[in-house]
Structure formats: structure tokens, C-alpha cells
């Protein structure tokens, strides 16, 4: 009976998706000009902002992962994850991958641990809520520098995003672990430096590629990832426009539709249609916490062959969006002057605006990211140094907690 019910649900889902696809085809035939403009708008957004802003960082992330640094930093986080969130050994690597590469890499790493029986169901759900994060370069470079023309705004949105994820993981700390047994072994008490270099050596040995091969494959994988992202951007640009054409005029220009469907489109649509301020930052924070239907579908596909339910992940996304919205007002009010007093040093002196059809069809002036990055190389390098310096400072501040936890486990 259960098999029959699952087959029935599968057929119903297939029928619904087929109907939606057919309706979208009909709408594109009925509105070819609008479909073309929205598709071109999504392509320009990807070409002028996302490609130059994300490609160098994605290549570096692939290299850092191949060199074993992701697992090494993850090993430093493991005692803290075990103490605060009841996540066993191995979870630090998934968290570090999510912090660096962004979604859905953290979810992929988490489900890989579950497939190896290193996590139980409750542990997997907790780690999914913590590791499903937006990449820092997206929040700082793409949203902050390009969309909002403010490095401080990007840093503020990133800080709120991570704090909200931390709060959600704490709330989900007491989720039942489930019946499946974890194969995690108790960690032997070793020093932090030994833990770091041992994890890096193990990861490097497992990878086994020379640096030249690693660099070539990193470039190829980064380009492949960004081309996949371009497909999502273009497709959901068209989908947003087709949906907005069927809505009343009061709703057709809203940023809500792209925000629900795709985080990059939702953030861009809000940025070009809103004057700025705390409301805009709160909305973008909620969009990034929700992460869009695109990411939900990808994570749901990753979960297909497992017993992990989708509802805990959905609950975590809703909580993350809600806490990001609330925390923006709670922490943003004291920082209003700091956020508004920034000189837009990342903008070139002489702007060359372009007219780009947005996902909702609104014509807006837009500054591409190519000249921004080209004219501000030194400042962009400073931001990267600041991000990695902050990571090092965080590790330094957490050292006493890690030492205490290591001693407690050794007793």
C-alpha cells in the first residue's frame, strides 16, 4: 500500500509539473517580446555582475578544497559544533564548505556525510540548517558592491545572514537524532595545530592531484558551475515575467515573485526598485535566508535517495528568513549612520549606465561590475584580506572554548 501511495504521489507531482511546463510554453508563445526581454535581462545580469564577481572566487574555493584547507578548518570547528549543536565529527568540513562556496555546496557535503553513515537524521537536519549558506562573495561583492554600491551594506547583510543561521541551528539543537546509528568515533585529544595539519594532510592525500591538474580542473568546474547558474537566472527571469503578466498591475512590479523564486533576481529586483535603508537590507536578508525555489529544488533533489525529510529543511529556511528580517532591524538601527555615511569608493568616477530589463520588466539604469572591479583592484583585495582575517580572528577567539572542550572530552 505504501508503494502504491508513493507511486500515486509521484504521478500527481509529474502531472502538475507537466501542466506548469505546458502553461509556461503557451505563455512564451503568447508573449514572445516579453520573454525575450526578460531572458536578455537575466543574461546581462549574469554576464556583467555574476560572472566577473564569482568566477575568481569559485576557482580559489576549488583550489583551497583540493589543497585540504576546507577539511583542515572544519576540523577546528568540530569541537564547537559538537558542544553547541550536537553535530559529530565531520560536520565542520560541511560547514566550512557552505561558508566558502555557498549553497547548495553545504547541503551536498552534509548529505555526503549522511550517505557514509557519519550522521543520523536529526544531526543531518541540524547541519543542513547551519551549512546551507550564501557565499560571502555573493553578499559582499555582488549584492553589496554592485547592487547596493556599498561595501558596508554587503558586510552588514553577510553578518546578519550568518548570525541568523547560528540562531536557527541553536533552535533546532534538540531535534531527535533518529533511529540510524552514527559511525562517528570519539575524537582523541590532540592539539589544535596537530588537528589542523592532520586533516589537511589526509584531505590532500585523498585528492592526490598535482597543482597544475588541480588548477585546470578548478577553472573548468567553476565555469561549469557559473554556466549552470546562468541557466537558472535566465529561466527564472522568464518565469518571473510570465507570472507577473498574469497578476494585477499592483502586484506585477513587486519584488516578491523573484524573491520567492531565485535569490540573485530577488536581491537585484529589490535593489533597483527600492530607495534603500533598513527595509531594503531586511528584505534582502530574508531573501538570502529563504534562498529561493531554485535552491529548494536542488536540495530536494540531493535528498531524493535518502530518508531525510524535506519539511525540517523548509522549516529551517523559513526560520532563517524570519530571523534575518528581524535581526536586521534589531542590529541595523544603531548602525544606520555607519551604513549611510560610506563614500561609494567602489564606484568608478565616471559611470556608464546601461538599460537592463529586470525580471519584472522595469527599465532601470545599471552599473556593470567589470569597471568596478577593474578600477578598485586594491580595495577588492582589501576586502578579501578582511574576510580571511576575520576568519582567523574568529578561530583565535574560539581557541579557549576549543581547549576547554578538548580537556572535557579527555577526562
What does this structure look like?
This protein has 411 residues and is mostly helical. The protein has one domain. The protein has helices spanning 2-30, 32-66, 69-85, 91-101, 105-115, 121-131, 136-147, 151-171, 192-207, 211-245, 249-252, 256-261, 263-273, 278-290, 292-303, 310-332, 336-340, 369-375, 377-410; strands at 354-357, 363-366. It has a two-stranded antiparallel ribbon with strand order 1-2. Strand 1 (354-357) and strand 2 form a beta hairpin. Helix 2 runs antiparallel to helix 10, helix 3 (69-85) crosses helix 9 (192-207) and helix 14 (278-290) packs antiparallel against helix 16. The longest helix is centred in the N-terminal third of the chain and has 35 residues, at 32-66. It is globular. Residues 345-367, 372-389, 391-399 and 402-406 have low confidence and may be disordered.
How are the secondary structure elements laid out?
Layout: H1 2-30, H2 32-66, H3 69-85, H4 91-101, H5 105-115, H6 121-131, H7 136-147, H8 151-171, H9 192-207, H10 211-245, H11 249-252, H12 256-261, H13 263-273, H14 278-290, H15 292-303, H16 310-332, H17 336-340, E1 354-357, E2 363-366, H18 369-375, H19 377-410
Antiparallel strand pairs: 1-2
Task: Please give a quick description of this structure.
By secondary structure, the protein is mostly helical.
